[in-house]
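Support request, please re-run this one:
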Amino acid sequence: MTEVNREYKDRVFKFIFGNPENKEWTLSLYNAVNGSQYRNPDEIQFNTIEDAVYMGMKNDVSFIIRSEMNLWEHQSSFNPNMPMRFLTYGTQLYEKYIASSEYYIYSRSLQALPKPNCVCFYNGRAEQPEKQVLKLSDAFGGEADIEVKVTMLNINYGKNRALMEVCQPLREYAWLVDKVRTRQKELQNFEAAVEAAIQEMPEDFTIREFLITNRAEVRRMLLTEYDEEKVLAQERKEAAKEAEIRTENKVNERVATDMIRDKKPLKEILKYSKLPEAAIRKLAESMGVAVL
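Re-run finished. Output below.
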């Protein structure tokens, strides 16, 4: 199995929408997702957990605005287990909130908490709906006493057009990712594709100056995401191959078991089960049957 580097590297999505320097972009995306019209970026209080690592990934973006706790994650590959990840982050974020506020957990009166909003922004290559809700209860096989719902939005270029029209920075980010992929196919060199995409970004793009100013960091982030995507794709391919081999072995063992039980000759069992002689004799021994 290919080794994966689990050291976390920030993503371009977080660099754009989770950056205190660009709160207006975060607010624009928040308004687009929630249909709100807040105008003061300073209402956003980032509380991203920088030292929280789960399966090699950090909490991407989280912030409080008014009475809402927003948890945002970016994914370049579909992950149906995102609700469990959000549960992990949410627990730590609320612990952090309680520790820094006047919330009294032993109070006899109900203590108010900011309402959680969980959103996963997906821009992987595999086709996914424009919007879907992932639920923790799906992993339980039905409703349970603990539930987490995550709204997954497909932010590939050309998807969720209404959302993109309301949030210009998101539309520009989607354009960048799409342009990098297009140039990669043409140039067959990812680093050159990243450079070409940044150079070709229209001058009226809101995020252009920020990305060009931080060109080296953006290039590193995109290369890291691409390398991670390749490694994970290879992992999935190898895992599928291993699963296929395991299934084939089980079928062969069933064939051998039936033939041993019917006292078929060893030569015939070898031919039809495709198992090595040592494996057949071991299986026969466990069944208390001699093979000749």
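The longest helix spans residues 215-261. Residues 80 and 138 are 9 Å apart (CA to CA).
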